[in-house]
Each structure stands twice: as C-alpha cells, then as structure tokens.
Amino acid sequence: MAQYARVIDELMQTSGVHAALVVSRSDGIVIDGNVHVGTDADAIAALAARLYSRAAQAATAADGTEPGFLHLEGERGRVCAVGHGDLLLVTVAEPWTNLGLMRLAMRRLAQSLS
Amino acid sequence: MPAADDIRRWSHELATDPQSLSFADLAEALRQQGDLETAERLAARGLERHPTHAPALSVMARIAEARGDLSAASDFWDRARRHHPTPTGGAANGSVASPRTNGHGAPAVATTGGRLTGAAYPTASYAAVPTFSASLASPPQRPEVVRSLVADADGLLLASPQPTDDMAVLEAMAAAVAGVGDDAARAMKHLNLGAWHALVLETAGDSLALAPAPHGSLTVLSVARHVPIGRVRALLRVATARAAADGF
Questions:
Q1: Core-most of A92, B71, B82, B103, by most CB within 10 Å?
Q2: Chain A: closest CA distance from residue B80 (Å)
Q3: CATH code at B133-245
C-alpha cells in the first residue's frame, strides 16, 4: 500500500487535482486514494471504472487493442484514468489543470502499480 | 469534380456580375482542383460582400482543414452552421451546389448518410454545407483519421465517410460507443463537473475520440496512433463542428 500512497501523493501535488485514486478495474472499488473534502471517492471509483470499461470496449471494436490513458473533459473539470493490469489510476481535476503534465505523470506512475 | 464548362460559366457570371453568388461555386471548384490559394482568395473576397454566405464559409473551412489549420476550420464550420442552423442535407459528394441552381421553388427531399432531410427544410444554399460523410474522407487531407462516424443514441450508425468500407467495424463501433456517452454524462453529473464535451481514449493502437451531438448522438473518431493527442482533440473539434453543420 505504501507504493500506492506515494503515487497518490505525487498526483495530489499536481495543481488543480482534487482526487487521486487507485481503483479495482473489474469492480470499481477504491483500493487507496486521497480526495478533497466533499468529494465522493466511491462514486468517482465506480463511475470511472465503468466509463473506462465501456470506452475500452468501444476501442476494442475499432481495432482490438488494449486501452491506455483516458480523459473526459467537462465544463467544470476533467476525469483522467489509466489502467495497469486490474488496477486503474484515476484523477479528478479542474478544467485548467495541465493535462499534458498529468497525462505523463499518470502513465509513468501507473507502471509502478502492481 | 466540376466540369470545365461549369467553371467557365461561373467565371463568366462573376465577371459580368461581381455581386453574383457563383464565387462560392467557383472557389469550391478550384479547391477541388487543388488550387487552394486562388480558391481562398476568391472565397475571402466574396465573403467581404456576402459575409454570411454558408457555401463560401464551408469552402474556407475545407481550405483551412487542407492546410492543417484546425482552429480556423472549426471557426468557419461554426459560422457556416450558425448562418444555416437548420439541419440539412449536404451534397453527398461534398460538392458545393449553388443556391441558384438548386432553386428557390418547392422544397426538396434528400437523403444524407442514411438520413432523410424533410421537405420542411429549405434547400437553397443549405445544400452547400458539406456532408459530414464527405468531409473527413479525403486521404490526402486526413490521413490520420482512420475511421469517423456519427452514431445515434441507440448505437446505430448515422453517417460515416466510409459507408461501404469496413461496414461491420463501423457498426460495431457505433454499437459499442452508445453507452459511453451515457456513462460520461452520468459521471459528469455525479461529480458536478457540468456537461461533457470530449472523451479521448489512447490505446496501443488507434486513439478513440468522442464528442456529444444532439439527441444523444455521438461524433466518433478513430485516429492513427502516430497522431499527437493534442491534434486528436483538435480533429475531434473539427469533426464535431462539421457534424453540427451537417445537422447531426
């Protein structure tokens, strides 16, 4: 779990990030995470896991390859997720967050999950 | 591709009547022949006299796309749609049909990408707004877009530039993305993040990009893996604007 804490702490230090979670990809359960007050970690985990799964199915229909980094943009924020095995690294961030930095960090950190 | 006779006729019309709307036909013909500079000059000059002429705006959009200026392309598509916001059928082959040659008489009924555009819609210059299916199809202009489609809320294919190519794959994609839009909207609502406007999933192969369209439909792009992710988003914006201009 210490490795998860390190990953989560690093992501939470990114400006604009208000939730960082390690989630079970198969059932959408939170394994570890840190969220700002008022943020529902369980809801983020469940919704992100489902969205990732559905998007992955669509990508598979297109060319049958494994999914990687996902980002969903909304008016008031964005959700990012990247899978590694049965784990999913999820962040929720402000719309002005540097997506490029977050993407690189999440892809790198996801590799350290096991 | 317009015939040489058409080009001569439009040139003559424009020479004898500088206010003529045939400048858009002529610009589109030149664009199709690859003379982007002359086409752009002609369309831009015509837009000075007719700034809301949708066919000319769509020509400018396609020229911008051909040059890779996706931001300008989005703006021109948006302007074309704003000036003709009613859903319409475009020319299926992407040609710009003249408002005059289409006539202002009885409303026409036309099919576009499997859709029926009803008689209630005006025809005239609306027909000049190009179809979504004709837009991203050209390999020289959009080699990075592997597949693109519009899927309805029930997971059915509405339109695609490749209707006869990979039909099974396109239909499978349309079916597979149907729930993704709902899930994206649900996630945004629960997390109080407002309406969603883009979803991009990178994979080991092609990237998948989605954006919402009216009535629960989705604009979907499958983009080659070598395309930078920022450009994927830009392509999605253009495709979305273009689909909207086509009434999807």
A1: A92
A2: 24
A3: 3.30.450.30
| Per-residue model confidence (pLDDT) at position B143 | 65
Q: Where are the alpha helices (DSSP H) in chain A?
A: 2-12, 41-63, 99-110
As a whole-number percent, the residues of chain B with pLDDT over 70 amount to 73
Please list every residue in chain B whose beta carbon sits closer than 8 Å to the beta carbon of residue A58. Answer: 173, 176-177, 180, 201, 208, 210, 220
Encode pLDDT of A82-108 as tens digits. Answer: 999 999 999 999 999 999 999 999 999
In the prediction, which pLDDT does B162 show? 67
CA distances from B47 to A37, A53, B40, B120, B147 (A): 53, 47, 10, 28, 33
Q: Rounded to two decimals, what is the model's pTM? A: 0.68
- The structural domains of chain A, with segments of one domain joined by +, span 2-110
Q: Are the beta carbons of B196 and A103 separated by less than 8 Å?
A: no
C-alpha span between B232 and B244 (Å, rounded): 18
**Partner-chain residue, chosen from A39, A68, A72, that has the shortest CB–CB distance to B184:** A72
**Confidence band, pLDDT 50/70/90 cuts, at residue A62:** confident
Task: Judge whether A108 is closer than 8 Å to chain B, CB to CB.
Answer: no
CA quadruple B85, B88, B93, B98: dihedral sign? negative
Half-sphere exposure of B52 (CA within 13 A, CB side): 4
By the CB < 8 Å criterion, does A92 face chain B? yes
A38–B contact, CB cutoff 8 A:
no
CATH class of the A2-110 domain in this structure: alpha beta
pLDDT of B244 strictly over 60: yes
Closest CA to A105 of A43, A26, A14, A5: A14
Q: What is the ipTM of this complex?
A: 0.92
The ranges of chain B annotated as CATH 3.30.450.30 are 133-245
